[in-house]
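Figure 2 data, in text form.
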Amino acid sequence: MPTIRNLSVSIEDINILRDINLSIHSGEIHILMGSNGSGKSTLARTIMGFPECIIKEGDIIFDGSNINNLSLTERSKLGIFLAYQYPVEVPGVNFVSFLRIAYNSHLPKGKGINTIRFTKLIEEKAKLLDIKLSLIKKDLNDNMSGGEKKKMEMLQMLILNPRLVILDEIDSGLDIDANRVIYKAINTLSHQNKKTAFLIITHNDKILNFLTPNFVHIMTAGTIIKTGKAELIKEISKHGFKFHK
């Protein structure tokens, strides 16, 4: 699981993150909150290994090894998964084919699953999340609503069964039914694999109706300024982020 030590990050020579320290253990749920532009998404993308996020100082340790120089693909194979606030449409790339390649890449050589068995697996998980089976026949996120795209991100998460899940405002802009699907997926994976850890970036104080986090963190100006329990979300909802500056 990740341990982040004294992490400072820049993008295009602009300092975004400053001296971030964060440890997430197996099975824990961490909520990260903060005003827009505070660096939350940059932290998520840095952990995932996006090349534009340049580590100036500090370390990201995963299972005892430094992964600062590992590529996004290598980190994915370690079991790190990132779901976006705005999933990208990829016309021409079939969803099932894309996800099967990703799934098989995490397996030992020669242990891949064929298309028929994999499609059945996807259908089982889709029904569990009340996702229309017609969506899995489409190209990746192509011609889908925002809610549908995020549901499909959750379907990917359940199929890949990652060890560390990072959700970047996956619940943003959704109606009540879509939000229920999102949180059902999180709870399903949490019960399916009790060692999976979550870092959930959100502005939604209603998250406490669905999840019980182990820790809540507030980020301001590129650094984590406060860590607490679930009650911290209620304080933020009442007083705003400035209350903690």
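Caption note: The mean pLDDT is 91.
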